[in-house]
Amino acid sequence: MPITKEWQALIDQKLNDRASRIFPAWRLPHDLTEHVRPDASVSAFELLRKTTILSSKEIEITETYSAENLIRILATREITSMEVTTAFCKRTAIAQQLTNCLTEIFFEQALQRAKELDEYIVKKGRPMGPFHGLPISLKDSFMVEGQAATLGFISFLKKPNATKNSFLVDILLEGGAVLYAKTNVPQTLFTCESYNRLFGTTMNPHNLSLTAGGSSSGEGALIGIRGSILGVGADMGGSIRVPSLCNGTYGFKPTANRVPFGGQQDFIRKGWPGVLPAAGPLAHYASDLTFFVRSVLLAKPWLKDSTALAVPWREVPKKARLTIGVFLNDPMFPVFPPISRALQSAADKLKKAGHEVIPVNAPPILTGVTGAVRSFILDTEDTVSKYLAEAGEEPVECVRQMNLAALLGQSGVSLDDMWRFVAEREDYREDWGKIWRENQIDVLLCPGSRGTAVPHDKYGIPVYTLLWNFLDFPASVIPYERANKALDTEVIDGCKLPYYDPTLTLTDCILVNIDEVDGAPCHVQIVGWQFQDEEVLSATETIADVLN
Amino acid sequence: MPITKEWQALIDQKLNDRASRIFPAWRLPHDLTEHVRPDASVSAFELLRKTTILSSKEIEITETYSAENLIRILATREITSMEVTTAFCKRTAIAQQLTNCLTEIFFEQALQRAKELDEYIVKKGRPMGPFHGLPISLKDSFMVEGQAATLGFISFLKKPNATKNSFLVDILLEGGAVLYAKTNVPQTLFTCESYNRLFGTTMNPHNLSLTAGGSSSGEGALIGIRGSILGVGADMGGSIRVPSLCNGTYGFKPTANRVPFGGQQDFIRKGWPGVLPAAGPLAHYASDLTFFVRSVLLAKPWLKDSTALAVPWREVPKKARLTIGVFLNDPMFPVFPPISRALQSAADKLKKAGHEVIPVNAPPILTGVTGAVRSFILDTEDTVSKYLAEAGEEPVECVRQMNLAALLGQSGVSLDDMWRFVAEREDYREDWGKIWRENQIDVLLCPGSRGTAVPHDKYGIPVYTLLWNFLDFPASVIPYERANKALDTEVIDGCKLPYYDPTLTLTDCILVNIDEVDGAPCHVQIVGWQFQDEEVLSATETIADVLN
To answer: Which of A300, A306, A311 to probe the B interface (max B CBs under 10 A)?
Structure first.
């Protein structure tokens, strides 16, 4: 079914409106933008360095601070929110033109808000709250009064703009944040890609030909290129961590419903009984992940959002010596040389720094992956397909390929699948419980994916993040090292490069050559037990200090 | 299908074994036990006062202390565990003969354990842990190494005795507790009655003709008559709170999986996706509920039991002035005069004591009840009926009557019922969220049942406790006042006494005359938001101080 003229007109109107929201002075010349294509092996950082739109002060503001530090000097009035907001809006305008990372742009409102905050702090003599004056970017799913939330579904263009903020958005605004843009997602939000038929492809700033990951694709790209210093995503299978590891940022998926998830644009059928999604931050520093989660929880989100858990923030003392379980590879899903090298190097450095590093005998991640997938097929109404069909939108290749029922070797679904899902999760949690108990580990160090960002539409199922959603365990991603074609030459399991294993049905769209990903950011993933968000954040800071 | 001779022989053997475990010197004379019948309107307390088995010291030990106080003097060695254990074993032996509250009796092991604890404290100069020397009773579902756990199912007589303790049992033992008896449950554990075909009827010590409630029936009766100072039950619809309110004890149902639930005797099909059960304490003092939960959580149960939530105990400051929402009655389920009077009196006293008491406009409790019931029909395998059928055991009347699917007006069940269950719970939580937010209440004061304990097999569906299981909200019961036929003469909704409303299909086995329940304990229920167990316990102590 093709897109009708009526829908196409709505799409054109939306894209024109989006383009118009970038002030003329912030538009890039054609000789830069002509290089911007999803098949161009080009660095957006290099293109950015060729513009003169950003002043040196603006480059300093956007490149050299942590969110916390910026808030500190905003609080002392060494800098104004207007300066900071202008710098990030400008850089975001450039990011949009280089990576196509945005869905909604509201710079004018942001600058007005910054002005009000600057007046507030002068008048009251104190900041409005923990986020005073700081621009924060949001995944498109978050509702911001007056703004659309299409989630890349063409049919959602007919939905009215938000009349109410998501609960988290209210908390950020009450805390003094400046909101200025919302960011792109992949079609259906159920893949780790960056393309939808409404807004097109979000590109990875490190290399436009690579995916920005998903589903918080635009957050990953925007924060990657420092158009944002702190952003909010949501993660049900890796949707915060995959964009983080693809774009070289930090990211944290909390235990579900600690950071309030309520009041987002609905796209999952009501009553969803499966793996719970979690909202969480992406940032440039581990300490900013902690700062975000702590500040949000100190606002007691459960007093606003009845879906948020009334589990208050706990201050945990920083451990001088962590006990870190290390799990480098599941033989069924071989980890590719750049990530293996990063993990091994991280483990070595941590040991040298005095931490206890214990290799653990991990249970098969396939069990966790199939358990999670079992819940993804529970929607007998196939709600997401309906949203596509409403506007005659065809599923894209990677959505079409994702026949989850077939992955499980079944054709239908029944109530018994729900029982199986719960039973398998209980067993798998106990499998990991043994690992935690026997080794008395604080956290686990493991891959967040088999490789780095891959060329568009080749990410496949995010096996190394998804299992932690199945278990509802908090997990962060730390950027560390980069793919290096001179170093990452190891042959895996008898397969030469490209890294391709045709026996892996769960991942058979992965077909990547080291040349294609040379220079892409590598990472490690840090995982903790459910509800030990505070311990994971603290360990992430400690480990990041050792690594970076 | 009748019980075969083979099964009957096993039953007889079990009952003989149980009887043999009461030392001859602790056996009651026939002129007392001849009064013990489930249809006798007789007080077990009065029968107990006629025995001379307990010394005055033993009466003092069992009647005048809180668990915490007893532990305090055990720690200073003013008293030995042997003395305390002997006193409670003796009184429990009497309780068993008067109320039939026990399933497993292991006094010998208890006395041996007490001796070891007495030696321990002398040798080490300190108590073993927070429960040092204290006898604690357990619902039959908890596994104690070497003991059976039949749950009143005849077919479970063929199961081997426990080879491993439940995780909570390990925590109690590591904390220095003395275990001495396990307590009776109703057939299937899915009713609030006290009868099963293996052990028979547990009777209410206040009046043997009244139910002891269920499903922690034996705990209620045993603690009610002070054969136990602190016991552990489990609650999925009211199974801690109903026995508490029937027998005049305190009881607390925590948020599910804070007190570790794992390692109990299985009787629910694996993978249960519905309302979560919770383990929790019954006691004689509000402060002992807190003491129990705090002590268990300080042992970090999640390090043992992978189903226990890693949400540590929080110390919360005691509020001098509570904001208490009050909800006296749902017109669809009229609360009977004794409980209405107790609630109104409690609200008045609390107001006089300086607390803010706010009447709230509660959403219909029917919504919570049907939501929970929707989850109870999800077992397509009807596992519990299989356990009955295995030994040819017929369902008792109140189990047979409980056609839950019919209550919901449906004949079958499908995966969509699971979605509906989750969706209804989300909506209902938000309905209550509005109440909590608009009134900024700390806790809610409300009925825990329509009436007091009722004659056997007339309790019906525990509507006023079940809705809080649906929401997974922590809730306690405080004993307060007693039914009084001189005072409780009010006519409800046009029905004269007996309190019977034939329009209420959910409760149509309730048919009670005030004469039958005269003198039975009344109560109030205190409810808090999910995960605010600490706040509920603290408020329960404060409110109990005002009331009693």
So the answer is: A306
- Reply yes or no on whether the pLDDT at A492 is more than 80: no
Alpha-carbon gap, residue A466 to A238, rounded angstroms: 6
Domains of chain A, with CATH numbers?
A: 5-264+275-303 (3.90.1300.10), 323-547 (3.90.1300.10)
Handedness of CA A315, A316, A320, A325 (dihedral sign): negative
| 8 Å CB contact between A140 and A152 | yes
Q: What is the pLDDT of residue A400?
A: 82
Contact criterion met (CB below 8 Å) for A494 and A408? no
For A271-302, the pLDDT digits (tens) are: 999 999 999 999 999 999 999 999 999 999 99
- pLDDT score for A1: 67
* pLDDT of A420 above 80: yes
Chain A residues touching residue B529 (CB < 8 angstroms): 302, 310
Q: Beta A278-283 vs A250-253: how paired, if at all?
A: antiparallel
Nearest CA in chain B to A423: B271
> What tens digit of pLDDT does each residue of B386-402 get?
999 999 999 998 888 77
Report DSSP state, residue A238: S
C-alpha to C-alpha distance for B372 and B474, rounded to whole angstroms: 16
Q: Which of B166, B209, B216, B239 is catalytic?
A: B239
Q: Do A271 and B419 touch (CB under 8 A)?
A: yes
Query: Which residue has 């796209």 as its token pair?
Result: A267
Give percent of chain B with pLDDT exceeding 90: 87
Where residue B498 falls among pLDDT bands split at 50, 70, 90? Answer: very low
CA distance A41 to B528: 57
Q: Which residues contact B341 (CB under 8 A, 6 or more apart)?
A: B481, B487, B488, B522
**Closest residue by Cα to residue A453 from A225, A194, A139, A250:** A194
State whether A420 and B271 contact (CB < 8 Å): yes
pLDDT of amino acid B459: 87
Where is average pLDDT lowest: A182-191, A386-395, A500-509, B247-256?
A500-509
Mind listing the pLDDT tens digit for each residue in A351-407? 999 999 999 999 999 999 999 999 999 998 889 999 999 999 999 988 887 777 777
> Could you write out the DSSP letters of every residue in A318-329?
PPSS-EEEE---
Measured distance CA(A335)–CA(A117) in Å, rounded: 47
CA distance B342 to B339: 5
Q: How far apart are alpha carbons A195 and A197 in whole angstroms?
A: 7
Which residue on chain A is closest to B535 by alpha carbon? Answer: A310
Residue B198 to residue B100: CA distance in whole angstroms: 12
Comparison of pLDDT for B74 and B399, the residue scoring more: B74
Dihedral in degrees, nearest 10, Cα atoms B111, B220, B443, B321: -60
Distance (Å, whole) CA B100 – CA B98? 6
Helix, strand and coil content of chain B, in percent to the nearest 5, comes to: 40, 15, 45
CB contacts, 8 Å: A414 with chain B: 414-415
Average pLDDT, integer, range A92-105: 98
Q: Catalytic pick from B14, B81, B90, B139? A: B139
Q: Which of the four pLDDT bands, split at 50, 70 and 90, describes residue B493?
A: low
Residues A214/A193, Cβ–Cβ less than 8 Å:
yes
- Per-residue pLDDT, A197: 97
Distance between A194 CA and the closest CA of chain B, angstroms: 30
**Residue A406: how many CB atoms within 10 A of its CB?**
11
Query: How close A90 comes to chain B (CA, Å)?
Result: 40
Q: Cα B320 to the chain's mean position, in Å? A: 29
Distance CA A212, CA A458 (A): 11
CA–CA gap between residue B255 and residue B242 (Å, rounded): 17
Structure tokens at B456: 């056997």
Nearest CA distance, B379 vs chain A (angstrom) = 9
pTM, two decimals, is 0.96
